Amino acid sequence: MSEQPLCWVCHRSEKEISAFADMETPGEREIVQQMTQVARFKDEFIQSADGWRKGVPKEFREFGFTFVTSNPDQFKSIRIANGLLGEIAAPSKLLGEIAEAKKLTVDWLVNVAPVLRKGDGEVTGFGPLSHFERADRDSLKRMLDQFEAKWHRRIGADGGKGANTSGYQQGFEDLKLIDGLEFMIAAGTLYYDVQSRLLDMAKREEIKSKPKRGVLAVPVDGYPPIPLCSVCVDLMREVSSRQMAVAPSVPQKVSATQH
Fold this sequence. Notes:
Elements: H1 14-21, H2 26-55, H3 65-70, E1 79-81, E2 87-89, H4 92-104, H5 106-118, E3 122-123, E4 127-128, H6 134-151, E5 153-154, E6 169-170, H7 177-208, E7 215-220, E8 223-229, H8 230-246
Parallel strand pairs: 5-6
Antiparallel strand pairs: 1-2, 3-4, 7-8
Helix pairs in contact: 2-7, 4-7, 5-6, 6-7
């Protein structure tokens, strides 16, 4: 196995140069921050889900999920028997939280599901899906397909005319409150997983866009090609350009008649 060429100036290999010059771009930093936020929001969502499960009164469980979450304020005046404690107000705040979580997570999935299935189009918050590798786009479709196969429910339209050709029920169709809540929690978790996958894809695309660093044979007048690393080449160019900028002008010769 041949040895890697070393830079003639700094004596570093291509691997060493890549490690030295692999600086995190502003775009990478922003994506990493977003990935951290998504992970935190997912943890908070899962913690909230436990509270929602425990907080739904049994008297409400036969109500339709869509009806309850679409009209949480209608339950403010309803009171529920609570054993020795008499009556307590219906948990309209809890229902409002569930409705808001559904709007943030499931409704976003409903909007982008046709795009994920097709592997092309605009993904809200991420731009055109065509910017990513085909294998990555296919992985997003598999995530959606596997979720729907598990729940036998469709998220969003099939595309085209919006017809449901899967044979699955659509979204929260015919689900009671407690069952719809479980579906919403699962779909909300999928939302954060899809967001994480999209951010990971965006990060890899950002890394690919960075200039490549390495050791190349650079032709020099009167000499054979010399191995120089990209860092040294850039450094030489920078020093040369600065010297040209600050070089003093050569004074013109003054003739005797000008005195």
